[in-house]
């Protein structure tokens, strides 16, 4: 038997053997990739709830899932399940409902939405409802809302998926804001590197475009108000960018050690070569003005991968389209890549699918992997007016053919959560 393949730090090499994607552009990675590389947008006017009087009326909602009744946890669960099925089918790992490894799930914090609140506070006996907390306690004691309360617990999505796919051990639910998808992948990588498991199912999902969430982001002046036409609402790195567009979706990865994958004859699709994560205590929503934690996350990912800055062929940017975030991402990349940042192609998938929030890191990692396989860099659409203060090689409006070996995929979130992945095409 030959010597096990390890990286330059003596750790097991972690490979991808299956992945799945759902966004507002459609079901499955192939449908999404065809749309993304053609520059098609999935952003549209919101029809899920009334938008009268709202400054933002556009989102990337996933409206094609079959649900008995809409709620953010129900949609998040349905998308996560479908993306995971696609990943597992490609990997051919495990029998039905028996996955031989743990589940790491990135999921948004769940909360009761207004229809459920209205039902809870309705008086079943026709009497005037009591106020506030007392009425909520009364509803809980009635026993009529067991399913509602169970669904809106933070761990509910992970528990449902763990039962569905038969994952091993307790499922791990996590929420690190918009870095969550990348964090879920990192946890899978770390578990395999430690030798805790030979395989991990890493899923990220977010179906939380509802009125209250939209209003909260709007009050932070974070959302684009360019409602007409909807497909022009998201403009990452452009001078006339005006904010991000909320969106929904899910991404799933089956990760394995190289040795385990080869032993069972699996097709290796790529390598999660490096992971970097840094926290920032500077502000609840803003990043450090010097970009220190973002710079730290990128440098940590490169160091973990054993990759020099000049070996990065393409950057899948966080690229939200807000004034501050895009500028800080550029300054941080320049601090790490130096003048090479001007000649390293970069694009933001959020220009077409919007910001899928909790799911963004996993979905964009999937598109990064497809860039390597297809030799195609997806465009940043709506990039008509370059920002002279952000001199990047943005792939503008149309996809570009290129040989890609190493991709840097960035995910930065509110609350100071910053994560970067280095994804490669072949084991070292």
What does this structure look like?
- The protein folds into 2 domains: 14-111 and 153-417, 3-Layer(aba) Sandwich (Peroxisomal Thiolase, Chain A, domain 1); 114-151, no CATH class.
- The chain has 13 helices and 16 strands.
- With 428 residues, the protein is an alpha/beta fold.
- The strands form 3 sheets. Strands 1, 2, 5, 6, 7, 8, 9, 10, 11, 13, 15 and 16 form a 12-stranded mixed beta sheet that branches. Strands 3-4 form a two-stranded antiparallel sheet.
- α2 packs parallel to α6.
- The chain is globular, with a radius of gyration of 21 Å.
Keywords:
alpha/beta; 12-stranded mixed sheet; Peroxisomal Thiolase, Chain A, domain 1; 428 residues; two-stranded antiparallel ribbon
Count of helical regions: 13
User: Spans with pLDDT under 50 lasting ≥5 residues?
Assistant: none
Number of structural units classed as domains: 2
Instruction: Tell me the Rg in angstroms.
Output: 21 Å
**Judging by the overall fold, what is the CATH architecture of the largest domain?**
3-Layer(aba) Sandwich
- Judged by helices, strands and strand pairing, the structural class is alpha/beta
What is the fold named in CATH at topology level of the largest domain?
A: Peroxisomal Thiolase, Chain A, domain 1
The CATH superfamily of the largest domain bears the name Thiolase/Chalcone synthase
Distance between the termini: 19 Å
Summary of the model, kept short:
It is built from 13 helices and 16 strands. The chain is an alpha/beta fold and 428 residues long.
């Amino acid at each position: 038997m030959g010597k096990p393949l390890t990286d330059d730090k003596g750790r097991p090499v972690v490979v991808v053997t299956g992945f799945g994607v759902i966004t507002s552009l459609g079901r499955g990675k192939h449908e999404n990739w065809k749309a993304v590389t053609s520059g098609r947008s999935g952003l549209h006017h919101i029809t899920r709830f009334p938008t009268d009087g709202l400054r933002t009326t556009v989102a990337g909602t996933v409206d094609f899932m079959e649900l008995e009744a809409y709620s953010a946890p129900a949609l998040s669960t349905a998308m996560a399940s479908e993306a995971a099925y696609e990943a597992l089918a490609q990997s051919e790992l495990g029998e039905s409902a028996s996955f031989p490894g743990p589940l790491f799930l990135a999921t948004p914090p769940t909360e009761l939405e207004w229809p459920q609140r209205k039902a809870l506070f309705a008086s079943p006996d026709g009497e005037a409802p009591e106020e506030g907390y007392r009425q909520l306690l009364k509803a809980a004691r009635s026993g009529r809302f067991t399913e509602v309360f169970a669904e809106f617990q933070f761990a509910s999505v992970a528990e449902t998926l763990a039962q569905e796919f038969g994952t091993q051990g307790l499922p791990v639910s996590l929420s690190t804001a918009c870095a969550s998808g990348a964090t879920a992948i990192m946890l899978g990588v770390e578990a395999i590197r430690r030798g805790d498991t030979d395989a991990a199912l890493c899923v990220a999902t977010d179906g939380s475009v509802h009125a209250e969430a939209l209003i909260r982001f709007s009050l932070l002046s974070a959302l684009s108000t360019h409602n007409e036409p909807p497909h022009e609402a998201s403009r990452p790195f452009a001078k006339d960018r005006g904010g991000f567009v909320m969106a929904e979706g899910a991404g799933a990865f089956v990760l394995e050690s190289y040795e385990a994958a080869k032993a069972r004859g699996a097709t290796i699709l790529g390598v999660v070569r490096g992971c970097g994560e840094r926290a920032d205590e500077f502000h609840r929503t803003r990043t450090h003005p010097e970009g220190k934690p973002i710079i730290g996350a990128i440098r940590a990912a490169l160091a973990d991968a054993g990759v020099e800055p000049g070996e990065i062929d393409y950057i899948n940017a966080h690229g939200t389209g807000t004034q501050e975030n895009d500028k800080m991402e550029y300054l941080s990349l320049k601090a790490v890549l130096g003048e090479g940042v001007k000649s390293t192609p970069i694009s933001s998938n959020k220009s077409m699918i919007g910001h899928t929030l909790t799911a963004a890191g996993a979905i964009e990692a999937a598109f990064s992997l497809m860039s390597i396989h297809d030799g195609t860099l997806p465009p940043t659409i709506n990039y008509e007016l370059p920002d002279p203060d952000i001199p990047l090689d943005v792939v503008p409006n149309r996809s570009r053919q290129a040989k890609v070996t190493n991709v840097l995929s960035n995910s930065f979130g509110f609350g100071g959560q910053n994560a970067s992945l280095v994804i490669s095409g072949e084991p070292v």
